Amino acid sequence: MELRCTCGAYLPSDARFCHKCGKPQYEEDAARLAAENTPAPVQAPLDVPGTAKTSPIGFGNLRAVTITIAVAAVTLIPLSLAMIAPPLSLIVLAAAGYCAAYFYRRQTSQPLSAGGGAWLGVMTGIWLFVVFALCAAVVSVKVSSPADLAVMKATLAHVPGAANMLDDPHQFIVTIGESLILLFFLSTLSAAFGGMLAARTLARRSQP
């Protein structure tokens, strides 16, 4: 007895597939073909140690924040000593930015662009600026107090010109504010230069 496929073709009674459209005539053949044509599930890529992507460099990157704060803290001592010679201060600030980019690259083992190195330097310079700004704020508050002002004059009596600056507390505070603006740009730009220099140096070393 001949069978008839859904496509209209007549098939022998023992036919397992239609000779015209290829449709299987038995359920086990249809199930096997359906299983073969089902795509395999896509496996998520395994996390390989050392290949995880880090967060973009910025204040939202905990590692970048930690490293730049640590470098800024260590830099405070040599920077305070170098304040007597402005050119030396710029070198110390550039070295701080260089160290921040260098240690970040060592900690993450990720390629560091020149922009990323510069941003690490800027972050380091900002932390340093915050410390000096807080110190300036404390000095400004003390200058506003007559008792503290007298103590400061006595303390700085041996420093040429310092006691004279304290004769006009208002002008002294204005001078501190102007100095902070200049310090912000010097600290961030110098440290950014050092971070960018570190990124380029490390990139050259990693090239075969």
Proportion of strand residues: under 5%
As residue ranges, the low-confidence spans are: none
Structural class: mainly alpha
What is the H/E string? EEHHHHHHH
General description of the model:
This protein has 208 residues and is mainly alpha-helical. The protein contains seven helices and two strands. It has helices at 27-37, 62-82, 86-108, 114-143, 146-155, 162-165, 169-206; strands at 3-4, 10-11. The chain has a two-stranded antiparallel ribbon with strand order 1-2. Strand 1 (3-4) and strand 2 (10-11) form a beta hairpin. Helix 2 crosses helix 4 (114-143), helix 3 packs across helix 4 (114-143) and helix 4 (114-143) runs antiparallel to helix 7. The radius of gyration is 36 Å and the shape is rod-shaped. The termini are far apart.
Helix/strand layout:
Elements: E1 3-4, E2 10-11, H1 27-37, H2 62-82, H3 86-108, H4 114-143, H5 146-155, H6 162-165, H7 169-206
Antiparallel strand pairs: 1-2
Question: Keywords, please?
Answer:
single chain; 208 residues; mainly alpha; 2 domains; two-stranded antiparallel ribbon; 2% strand
Describe this structure in a few short sentences.
With 208 residues, the protein is mostly helical.
